[in-house]
Write a structure and sequence with these properties.
The chain is of the alpha/beta class. The protein has 14 helices and 21 strands. Strands 15, 16, 17, 18 and 19 form a five-stranded mixed β-sheet that branches. A four-stranded mixed β-sheet has the order 2-3-1-11, covered by helices on one side. Helix 1 (about 5-15) runs parallel beside helix 2 and helix 10 (about 290-300) runs parallel beside helix 12. The longest helix has 13 residues, at about 215-230. The protein is globular. It starts with 6 loop residues before the first helix and ends in an 8-residue tail after the last helix. It binds ligand EPZ. Ligand EPZ binds near residues 5, 104, 109 and 310.
Length: about 400
């Protein structure tokens, strides 16, 4: 499946392309429907050409108010703020929605827009940002935020002069975005490092469709699933090179992994070994794989440890795993010990967010008895037809 955390950003970038753009290998997930809905609400054209391709075309003058209900349903909505502000001189939006995994403030975005000369106002729940003329600026992020890096990168493309983003995020999705913009006429250097330099240009023209790369978090999730459920599977059309630290850690559990440039053969061991995991910005262990890894730890021999460094509310879901029978000691909002192996018992579960929802499905597959996972729209936001993928590896599962 195409990457959930890049495709919607290309939809947002289409605002900057007078003649529009085409994007291929689009994942069939709710976040895409939501982003297309936001663009249509602003007056842009979104045409599906084939199952996994869209032609996106802005109009001369787009609306500048993001549709409240849609924007509040997913985090990536905020990425539209930058391209709209630089193109139309104004944008208004509610605090973005998405997974409840921490407070998720947007101070980095607001501070950066102000540095470029924008005015920030609050009208009720809405942020209203205006700018007669943005100017290049040297911006130091307090934290290497992924969506803030993507948003300010796209803003700076059309801002006269030079903008420097210090302490920028380095995720592969950001490199894919920067390369596409650069191929289309932007002047960006340093993407993939913590310092990105953008020289403003007047226009962009897409020379070829954007090919959405495979979703490395989906790849990692399926690899963990195979390891926990004692499977021997092959994951094809993936990019193991963007999961090096994670794969090193998964090998430490005893899972046998054969790797090629575009595939992974995952063979579960007789017994899983306990591991210590510290999540980190790229290239470290993705925080988005922490939840499925926690389930693996409940089945591993010994005491495992998780240090979640990116989000302060991403361990709360573990209480439900304890109710399934897991032996977990929560030290504080960032650290837990997990002792294993323990027998998990099936139960009714409420999916609190995308990755914990997927983790509940994996836990249900190793648990004794039946489980029912509610609120799966969370999971549909980031995994395509998940029950079909799981059934393909032998899971007894149905959507009700
Ligand atoms: C992106 O979220 C991804 N979402 C997340 O994936 C992913 O977990 C995260 O990056 C980290 O890799 C999308 O790309 C849509 P951040 P983002 O800004 O950009 C703090 C999934 O499961 N922060 O890099 O929102 C923030 O609170 C999702 O697919 C500020 O303090 O994450 C967090 O502690 C979940 N102020 C840290 O930075 C700001 O203005 C990193 O968050 C912005 C962020």
């Amino acid at each position: 499946m195409g990457a959930k955390n890049i495709a919607p950003k290309i939809f947002a970038a289409s605002v900057l392309f007078k003649d529009g753009l085409q994007i291929n290998n689009v994942p069939l997930i709710n976040d895409i429907e939501n982003m297309a809905g936001l663009l249509r609400h602003l007056g842009a054209k979104t045409e599906r050409v084939g199952e996994r391709s869209f032609k996106l075309k802005p109009v001369l003058s787009l609306g500048t108010d993001l549709a409240d209900d849609i924007a509040k349903s997913f985090r990536a909505s905020i990425v539209l703020s930058g391209p709209l502000l630089v193109k139309e001189g104004r944008v208004s939006f509610p605090h973005p929605g998405g997974c409840v995994i921490g407070e998720r403030p947007i101070d980095v975005f607001l501070e950066s827009f102000e540095k470029m000369g924008a005015k920030i106002a609050k009208e009720g729940e809405k942020y209203v940002i205006t700018a007669n003329k943005l100017r290049g600026a040297e911006i130091v992020f307090k934290i290497p935020s992924v969506t803030a890096t993507e948003t300010l990168l796209m803003t700076a493309v059309f801002v006269p002069g030079t903008t420097i983003l210090h302490n920028a995020a380095c995720e592969p999705e950001i490199v894919a975005l920067a390369e596409f913009l650069d191929d289309s006429g932007a002047q960006i250097t340093g993407a993939g490092t913590h310092t990105i330099v953008i020289r403003g240009v007047k226009s962009l023209r897409a020379k070829k469709p954007f090919q959405t790369p495979p979703d490395r978090i989906e790849t990692g999730s399926l690899a963990i699933l195979a390891g926990v459920c004692g499977k021997d599977i092959e994951i094809t059309e993936c990019q193991p090179e963007y999961l090096k630290v994670f794969l090193r850690t998964l090998r430490n559990t005893g899972v046998n992994i054969k790797e090629t440039k575009t595939s992974l053969r995952i063979q579960a061991p007789e017994k899983l070994r306990a591991i210590d995991v510290k999540t980190h910005e790229y290239p470290g262990i993705p925080t988005d794989l922490q939840s499925p890894l926690a389930v693996l730890m409940t089945q591993a021999e010994g005491r495992s440890f998780i240090f979640e460094t990116v989000f302060e509310g991403r361990l709360n879901w573990l209480n439900e795993l304890v109710r399934m029978g897991a032996n977990i000691t929560i030290c504080d909002p960032h650290r837990v010990f997990i002792n294993g192996p323990t027998l998990l018992r099936g139960r009714e579960l409420e999916s609190p967010d995308l990755r914990a929802g997927l983790a509940f499905m994996i836990a249900s597959l190793v648990a004794r008895g039946e489980s029912i996972v509610h609120n799966i729209s969370n999971i549909d936001r980031g995994y395509e037809k998940i029950e079909d993928r799981l059934r393909a590896v032998g899971a007894e599962i149905k959507r009700i």
